[in-house]
Amino acid sequence: MRFARAVAALAGIVAASGCIMPDQLAQFQKDVTDVQASLATVSQSQSELLKRVAALEGKTGSDDAVKRSEIADLKVQLDGVVRQTTATADKIDQINARVDRLSQDVSAAHDAARRTSPGLVVPGNSDPGAAAPPPAGGVAPTPNALYTSAYADFSKGNYALAVSGFEEYAEKYPDTELADNAMYWIGECHFSQGSFKSAIDAFDGMLEKYPKSDKAAAANLKKALAFVQLNQIGQGIEQLRYVTANYPGTDEARIASDRLSALGKP
How far apart are CA 213 and CA 225, in angstroms? Predict the structure, then answer.
């Protein structure tokens, strides 16, 4: 699991190097705690919704109009679960990326210290003669700062700014770990604005460029939901079936199955 990888890698950095500063460690620990809480919330929400769906499907003799209304309400809530799931996964990806960068910085600091003087210890040691890490240098925003800024705009509902930031990130850093995420969130921005055709185009662009992305299931599911929103029910059903067939056992597959049932196409 990606989250476990982040925790294990961070522990390894702390144990092996002594280079991580207390404030950095505290921030990572806070981030880990926040993600753990988000995972628990999403899991509970999903479990409750699935129970309600099962109970609704088991109703007999109930008014069809009332039943349809309840199903429609569950659709909205299930969409919210999709958003929560993808947002939590994105936070995990960000933590992993930050841990990877920290690991690289620690390795670089060790190498620099050895090249400068074999007798000196690396930063973070209590030796007052320890070598200082190389300065970061440059004033341009780092890839992480650009991505984080775009994601913050998305979280605040500043979708136009978020799209601009994510597009810039995807164009400048197409080979980074978060490039596919950036393209995914462009689709989410359009979806959140009700621009469902643009959302489909954005998800298609992401899937074409990063077909093996860990956000592929979510992108395909949101494509299906966008088709339904556009009243292109046939394409929506086809896309939902694609999700259930290609991503079995995932949250997206379960949600797609529920939506198919709600559309009368189990």
Answer: 19
- What pTM, to 2 d.p., does this model score? 0.58
Torsion of CA 139, 143, 145, 147, to 10 degrees: 150
Residue 238 lies in a domain: no
187 found inside a domain: no
Distance CA 152, CA 158 (A): 8
Structural domain that includes position 102: 1-137
Residue 122 within a domain: yes
Q: Could you give the angle at the alpha carbon of 162 between the alpha carbons of 83 and 182, nearest 5°?
A: 65
Nearest to 122 by CA among 140, 98, 111: 111
> pLDDT tens, 216-254?
999 999 999 999 999 999 999 999 999 999 999 999 999
Kindly list the distances between the CA atom of residue 47 and the CA atoms of 40, 54, 81, 177, 242, in Å, as whole numbers in the listed order: 11, 11, 10, 30, 23
Lookup: tokens for 265: 């196409």
Where does residue 264 fall: left (phi above 0), alpha (psi -120 to 50 degrees), or beta otherwise?
left
Number of domains in the chain: 1
Please report which helix (H) or strand (E) contains residue 250, including its range.
none
* Per-residue model confidence (pLDDT) at position 85: 67
* Residue 51: inside a domain: yes
Residue 47 amino acid letter:
S
Per-residue pLDDT tens digits for 165-189:
999 999 999 999 999 999 999 999 9
Cβ(183)–Cβ(166) under 8 Å? yes
